[in-house]
């Protein structure tokens, strides 16, 4: 056996022009449908004669027979006519299913009775009474095997261009020989894109057995099987598999270029039958070493159930996910507050579709409001009109280079907008106000991070001095800080995905740049739970796990897409990683807390509380009031001086923080 390189397991295209059999196949496939049907009928008739002759030979035990070829042909023609009448020849060979043969079996039982009647009444020259059963049995075997053979050949040839072009189907290994794996195998049986070659399973009792002709191997030999059988994709057909187990499988295959896809969980599949359409790409979270815990349902519902809830920035990546999770927790009213008309329309239509498809959401009022978070009077009107009790403030400009080039727009929206939004909440007796913050607010080296830390300081000050705005205020204000979310508009993951799909080099700013990562649904889920734990003024910090090197993430995404990294060691690889240099204001790594000893644990294992310095509301208001004037003058020097005074650790234009 030829040993293959670890980087050559993806099925390589093969030239097939010039091969005689495949040239014949090309010619046959190009024939009109009725001609192909006539060929199949003729072949079956000839084989029926052969099967009848063989059954007589087996019955008599010698070659000399006393029945003419004409009589043999007449007997053999009867089942062929029967097959035609029941529509056996109207089906497409490439779509042949085993279930078709059950109909043939029923026909043959009828024909056995028919033959016995012919023999009994001596209609045709007599043949032994046992012969029809043996004859139809042999013919049945021929029909089944011939159609399976044709189907297999067509699966390999149909849809492929023969003359000098390439075969592009993939060899598939199904991980999991249980019910889901078997259903998936059935779903793939008619595919021209995939060819299942084997199963692997953890159960040693299944090792060596076969499912639908495909051998089951043990998972201990996974890497060898992938190499030996020239596997291009591994399909995980174990809906109940744990994330830890899934990560081990991915790690085992991490050094080879192979696509890995999975079935959804049992909960997502519900009562649906498994089909190839259910297959999806591996969640990138599965390749990150992140702890996850089941959400606390009581915390999720505390500030939402039977309440009026408003989300600012409702059309953004975090804001829209908050809306999706809020509606699941049965508010009486959900107000979507967004400046972008298109983003607002998109999330509104999505939520209306959810509402229409489920009786659980019928009583929820969903309202879309176009508005700016700096418009305090409009916010107050909205809060009062819809009796808003909970506000999730997700509206922000968050793209670091964009805000770096538009500093005043960023600060006015992120810092002053938060001030007006929180003030409006206090004045209208909103019960809970939660600011969505970022790890870039910690010792920032960019305007975006500094503007978000300033927003945190505003919320801290308003929480402690709310009485200066409304003496009897009971609004609980808190902040939730976390790192990058996978799949958001500012995340590298969708950028890398597009680059891989187009075959372009992946662009990474620096080989040592690291980031924390969390999925959007998990982040939104924890934001809601953290807000429910607040007493007032807390800065909650989500446990993001271990930071990940972006270059490692890029390499894993390339491998999971079935490609090979192109570098000095592998010059013939598929996709190159190009380092472009740190962008203005970008750090090598982000932090979640400002000090080393100012964080406390909470009742939730993934939510911590940071104890950080705050400023008086008067001092902050003085700066916020000057922003419009300084914006007109574009006095960036003044702005950055304010950052240096208020934002702990702010360091202007530093590209590497250490």
From TrEMBL:
<feature type="transmembrane region" description="Helical">
    <location>
        <begin position="133"/>
        <end position="150"/>
    </location>
</feature>
<dbReference type="Pfam" id="PF02719">
    <property type="entry name" value="Polysacc_synt_2"/>
</dbReference>
<feature type="transmembrane region" description="Helical">
    <location>
        <begin position="67"/>
        <end position="88"/>
    </location>
</feature>
<feature type="domain" description="Polysaccharide biosynthesis protein CapD-like">
    <location>
        <begin position="309"/>
        <end position="610"/>
    </location>
</feature>
<keyword id="KW-1133">Transmembrane helix</keyword>
<dbReference type="InterPro" id="IPR036291">
    <property type="entry name" value="NAD(P)-bd_dom_sf"/>
</dbReference>
<protein>
    <submittedName>
        <fullName>Capsule biosynthesis protein CapD</fullName>
    </submittedName>
</protein>
<feature type="transmembrane region" description="Helical">
    <location>
        <begin position="100"/>
        <end position="121"/>
    </location>
</feature>
<keyword id="KW-0812">Transmembrane</keyword>
<keyword id="KW-0472">Membrane</keyword>
<dbReference type="InterPro" id="IPR003869">
    <property type="entry name" value="Polysac_CapD-like"/>
</dbReference>
<feature type="transmembrane region" description="Helical">
    <location>
        <begin position="38"/>
        <end position="61"/>
    </location>
</feature>
<dbReference type="InterPro" id="IPR051203">
    <property type="entry name" value="Polysaccharide_Synthase-Rel"/>
</dbReference>
<dbReference type="InterPro" id="IPR029063">
    <property type="entry name" value="SAM-dependent_MTases_sf"/>
</dbReference>
<comment type="similarity">
    <text>Belongs to the polysaccharide synthase family.</text>
</comment>
């Amino acid at each position: 056996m030829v040993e293959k390189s670890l980087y050559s397991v993806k099925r390589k295209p093969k030239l097939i022009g010039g091969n005689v059999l495949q040239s014949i196949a090309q010619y046959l496939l190009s024939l009109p449908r009725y001609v192909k049907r006539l060929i199949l009928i003729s072949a079956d008739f000839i084989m029926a004669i052969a099967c009848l002759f063989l059954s007589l030979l087996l019955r008599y035990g010698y070659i000399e027979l006393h029945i003419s070829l004409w009589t043999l042909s007449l007997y053999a023609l009867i089942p062929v006519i029967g097959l035609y009448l029941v529509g056996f020849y109207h089906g497409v060979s490439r779509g042949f299913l085993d279930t078709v043969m059950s109909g043939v079996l029923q026909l043959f039982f009828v024909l056995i009775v028919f033959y016995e009647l012919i023999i009994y009444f001596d209609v045709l020259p007599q043949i032994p009474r046992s012969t029809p059963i043996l004859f139809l049995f042999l013919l049945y075997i021929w029909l089944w095997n011939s159609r399976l053979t044709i189907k297999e050949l067509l699966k390999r040839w149909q849809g492929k261009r023969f003359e000098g072009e390439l075969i592009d189907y993939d060899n598939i290994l199904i991980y999991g020989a249980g019910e889901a794996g078997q259903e998936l195998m059935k779903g793939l049986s008619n595919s021209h894109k995939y060819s299942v070659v084997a199963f692997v399973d953890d159960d040693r009792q299944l090792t060596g057995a076969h499912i639908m002709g495909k051998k089951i191997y043990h998972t201990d030999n996974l890497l060898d099987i992938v190499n030996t059988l020239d596997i291009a994709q591994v399909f995980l057909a174990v809906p109940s598999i744990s994330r830890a187990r899934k990560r081990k499988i991915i790690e085992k295959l991490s050094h080879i270029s192979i696509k890995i896809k999975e079935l959804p969980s049992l909960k997502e599949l519900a009562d649906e039958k498994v089909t190839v359409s259910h297959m999806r790409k591996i969640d990138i979270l599965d390749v990150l070493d992140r702890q996850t815990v089941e959400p606390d349902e009581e915390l999720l519902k505390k500030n939402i159930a039977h309440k009026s809830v408003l989300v600012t920035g409702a059309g953004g990546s975090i804001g829209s996910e908050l809306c999706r999770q809020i509606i699941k927790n049965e508010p009486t009213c959900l107000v979507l507050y967004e400046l972008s008309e298109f983003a607002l329309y998109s999330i509104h239509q999505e939520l209306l579709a959810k509402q229409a498809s489920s009786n659980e959401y019928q009583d929820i009022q969903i309202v879309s409001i176009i508005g700016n978070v700096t418009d305090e009077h409009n916010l107050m009107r909205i809060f009062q009109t819809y009796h808003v009790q909970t506000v999730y403030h997700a509206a922000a400009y968050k793209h670091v280079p964009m805000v770096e080039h538009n500093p005043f727009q960023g600060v006015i929206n992120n810092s002053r907008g938060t001030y007006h939004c929180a003030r409006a909440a206090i004045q209208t007796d909103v019960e809970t106000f939660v600011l969505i913050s970022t790890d870039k607010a910690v010792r920032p080296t960019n305007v975006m991070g500094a503007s978000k830390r300033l927003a945190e300081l505003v919320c801290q000050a308003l929480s402690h001095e709310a009485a200066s705005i409304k003496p009897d205020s009971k609004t609980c204000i808190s902040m939730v800080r976390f790192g990058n979310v996978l799949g958001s508009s500012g995340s590298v993951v969708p950028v890398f995905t597009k680059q891989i799909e187009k075959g372009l080099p992946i662009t990474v700013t620096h080989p040592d740049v690291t980031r924390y990562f969390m999925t959007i649904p998990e982040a939104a889920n924890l934001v809601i739970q953290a807000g429910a734990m607040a007493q007032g003024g807390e800065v909650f910090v989500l446990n993001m796990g271990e930071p990940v090197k972006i270059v490692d993430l890029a390499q894993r995404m390339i491998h999971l897409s079935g490609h090979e990294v192109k570098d000095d060691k592998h010059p013939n690889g598929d996709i190159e990683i190009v380092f472009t240099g740190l962008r203005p204001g970008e750090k090598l790594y982000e932090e979640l807390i400002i000090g080393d000893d100012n964080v406390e644990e909470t009742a939730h294992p993934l939510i911590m509380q940071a104890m950080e310095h705050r400023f008086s509301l008067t001092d902050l208001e003085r700066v916020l009031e000057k922003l419009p004037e300084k914006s007109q003058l574009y006095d960036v020097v003044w702005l950055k001086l304010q950052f240096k005074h208020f934002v702990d650790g702010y360091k202007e234009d530093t590209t590497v923080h250490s």
